[in-house]
Amino acid sequence: MRQINRHPQHGMRIMLMLLPFVLLIAAWFVGSTLRLEANPHDKLLPGLSQMLSAIDRMAFTPDRRSGEYLLWADTLISLTRLLLGLTIASLIGLSIGITAGVFPMYSAALSPLMTVLSMVPPLAILPILFIVFGLDELSKVMLIVIGITPMLARDLEQRAKEIPAELFIKAQTLGANSWTVVLRVVLPQLLSRLITSLRLMLGSAWLFLISAEAISATAGLGYRIFLVRRYMAMDVIIPYVIWITLLAWLMDLALRQLHKRCFPWAEGGRA
């Protein structure tokens, strides 16, 4: 049988899914053990006990200065910034996507603009954001908004243009005006696509958040990572990175379940 026709069974699929993680973790602990045997004060590859101690210190022991549990406080602040940025970007991207995708007159102006804006590297304009919006929360949220809104708008515009023209003709034949077509025909299609697009852009949104927090912040997951790097505190950095990855994965899972629940027709009958 050709390799392209071979599909793993359920058990094999789970084993193949876990295998890279197991190998990665095993390689880490082998490397950590060897380095710690050579130098017990080595900080580059901390052992499991060191990382558990750091997690206990950051998550379950109040900070001496602030009295806060730093991991949870950083998580709350970062998630607030991230969710605020994603919400604003979704509303703007959806509005522009509908306008450019449905109304040809507006598309002539908006499509080239979104194309150009999507090519601007968001991190390159971070200094401009700090100058314009200051060093407070607004600049961090705006980096997320500016970073993902153009891509979101272009994706939704393209999806709107892929809606069969027969649906528009049928709706207008039944007496629907432009806004009725938007609300009854276009919006359900784009809301489904919006969730899928957000899932694909979660990684970029986290990247922009961590970058902004690393440069100018007094709290947050990105701020904490870049603060403790001065002391080569890998026992703190690695759990923070794993925690961020877990949060991103949970957000992706939540969006996937939301998509299945709200738009089962877009799942191809599998929901």
Automatic annotation (TrEMBL):
The keyword Transport applies. Keywords: Cell inner membrane, Cell membrane, Membrane, Transmembrane, Transmembrane helix, Transport. It is found in: Cell inner membrane; Cell membrane. Its main location: membrane. Residues 75-259 form the ABC transmembrane type-1 domain. The chain crosses the membrane at residues 12-31, 82-106, 113-132, 200-225, 237-255. It is a multi-pass membrane protein. Belongs to the binding-protein-dependent transport system permease family. This is ABC transmembrane type-1 domain-containing protein. It comes from Pseudocitrobacter corydidari. The lineage of its organism: Bacteria, Pseudomonadati, Pseudomonadota, Gammaproteobacteria, Enterobacterales.
